[in-house]
């Protein structure tokens, strides 16, 4: 069993990590860390009044002492083999903290955006770009480490539509326009602490549109001279909207190809996109629904334990275009679950030892 730490364990994504890792077959939680405010308390005390998950605090973690992610660095580093990081700090502070753990020879599986743009930090969706893990060799040279490194999760919003577009790239995909309808948990909120979202839609999420347009190109990039060079196509234009939903990011996608592509071929490719052989992986990565009113957030966000991607409403859009709807669970596939799956992939392939 690998010994793991959760850095940022009291936040919403940290709580997801706690649930996913409490009984994981490969990983054992041996350290929980958060801010100085939570340090020294038991995990149950630290999340009292802040627990946002439908399940209870895991029994195995309830009485574990919470460390200060910064001040107790040496104690955490001595207790774990690698860490998951989901802190709420500035980008500069987050990058400094993650590189500190990596330089202490601890792999860091990050849910934060601080290191996503670094060309030697892989941004993995395990079923889409597992080969990007190879850049870790170059990153270790930069950091001066033998074992430590950082991998970053992509933005949760792109997890809904990038998987559906990925098997279509070689069909001459030219451009993509997407509008995402994003749950409030993506902001680390619930309706209890964000009542102004009830019966409301906010047509702006800071930084999301840039991430939605640029991050897919890194995911589809190639490794050259020890860094990931982003793809230069397709051109992506995005609008991101916050909607009054607890969990689940939906995307309305408009895609244009160089020449018409049959809907039968597209659906065939989606249905053929199976999962990978890892504990947290969905058996069916993409599932296409033929019903006109599917997928629906409440009905389908938990598909494949929240790790599957739902697709529906494929139809024509102009002479050589299509439009369709996608849905994924933002704190499972898009955040903690995707990070755990990434750690499983890196363990299987020998990057985490």
Keywords:
353 residues; alpha/beta; Rossmann fold; Dihydrodipicolinate Reductase, domain 2; 6-stranded parallel beta sheet; 6-stranded mixed beta sheet; 12 helices; 23% strand
Describe the structure.
The protein has 353 residues and is of the alpha/beta class. It folds into two domains: 2-155 and 335-348, Rossmann fold; 158-329, Dihydrodipicolinate Reductase, domain 2 (2-Layer Sandwich), CATH 3.30.360. It has twelve helices and 14 strands. The chain has helices at residues 12-21, 43-46, 59-62, 73-79, 91-103, 136-143, 158-165, 208-219, 263-272, 297-300, 303-306, 332-348; strands at 2-7, 27-34, 66-68, 82-85, 108-110, 150-152, 173-182, 222-224, 227-229, 235-242, 249-257, 286-289, 309-316, 321-328. Helix 6 links the parallel strand 5 and strand 6 (150-152). The chain is globular.
Topology (elements, then pairings):
Blueprint: E1 2-7, H1 12-21, E2 27-34, H2 43-46, H3 59-62, E3 66-68, H4 73-79, E4 82-85, H5 91-103, E5 108-110, H6 136-143, E6 150-152, H7 158-165, E7 173-182, H8 208-219, E8 222-224, E9 227-229, E10 235-242, E11 249-257, H9 263-272, E12 286-289, H10 297-300, H11 303-306, E13 309-316, E14 321-328, H12 332-348
Parallel strand pairs: 1-2, 1-4, 2-3, 4-5, 5-6, 7-10, 12-13
Antiparallel strand pairs: 7-11, 8-9, 11-14, 13-14
Helix pairs in contact: 1-12
